[in-house]
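Technical annex B. To support the medicinal chemistry partners, we prepared a structural model of the target in complex with iron/sulfur cluster, based solely on the information shown next.
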Amino acid sequence: MPNQESPSPIPAKRPSGTSAPLTPGYAGHVSAVNCPAYEPETVEQALLEALTPFGGIASFVREGQTVLLKPNLLSPRPPEQAVTTHPTVVAAVAKLCFAAGASRVWVGDSCAGDHSEKRLWEKTGMTAAVPAAGAELKSFTEAVKPLPVGDLTVPVPSWLEEVDVVISLPKLKTHILTVLTCALKNTYGLVVGHAKAVYHGHFPSPREISHFLVDLHQALPPALNIVDAVTVMEGDGPANGTPAHAGLLLAARDPVAIDAVASRIFGVSPAAVPLIRRAEEVGLGAADLADITVVGSGKERAATCRFRHSRALFLQKLPPSLFKLTTYLLTYRPKINQTTCVRCGVCAETCSQDAIIQRPDGTYRVEKARCILCMCCLEACPHEAVDVNSPARWLRRRRRKRREDKAV
Ligand code: SF4
Ligand code: SF4
């Protein structure tokens, strides 16, 4: 994938408090614009406004290039559930790329779990929206090529070699393991299939997986990030949180700055997010809000709107060596809801630790001691049947049971 070096109308500025120099072109600037609804004209207008401070799409896409749009297509869920990037946003960016002279616009993401791509694309609205915009959906089940990332070799689709520019289109959501999923984490979907679950086994704590995700982001840097924050997911994302209307589109070259602004939307300091901290350490961008310039009609809204973060925020503070034991003792483990589970087995196939066991009666259960709390089962389940147990929930259940026992 050739590197895209585009001239920026925004001068690079080096944030205070960072030891590493900023990569040229990453400027600590974020565009935040109002986008009240997913109507095509509204999104297209908001997109034009969001890109204006960067010189428009022409600063990123040139005549004849092949562009990959990388939305978040976590699992086959409809757009209104706010699990995936909205198809209207994907289609609007694709049209803009063609208007800038792109010869091919591809759209692709590797979902969590073993789902058919046909079902994934249909459920997420991509089957209808992507071809209508003249773009093409790319499969992650074709040939793969190895990509060196740190000490590992990571499988990515071989067609990535033909891509000139990657534009990342994350959905803004909370994440029970990494606090939030936005620009920095979105690159993970370029890794093919089950390998993603396996890497969680190699890096079994928020801090360790954050280092790996930053290495991966450096190996596959998008030229531009456009965040779908019209409807965000608050609470315990990335799959089972609550959709909430934020009415924003965010855009930036700098993935750290855009994630820092996104973390504030959930009332979380960027310094509390290991992914952002690590990315700043290696010089990927600006993490200190004091060093980030936000422009656009949604600037005030981005600074003042607040949505609920995950209840597991404290997990970030656990040292990697104590993560598995502490979360086990605190009863933080996935729990399968036997009422909503349809016994499809996707979670068991996804789990790299073989911690999801099928009972003789066909139901599934989590073997708590084996679980590393990677959340892959929760992400992969298409039926919202996996939740996370916690001490608070355990106490609530105990109190309820005592009350019921007394009443009898
Ligand atoms: S929890 Fe049930 S419905 Fe969800 S993936 Fe597992 S088996 Fe399928
Ligand atoms: S059971 Fe535990 S280890 Fe297995 S996928 Fe779920 S969270 Fe990860």
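Notes passed to the chemistry partners:
The domain at 29-304 is CATH 3.40.50 (Rossmann fold).
Residues 2-24 have pLDDT under 50 and may be disordered.
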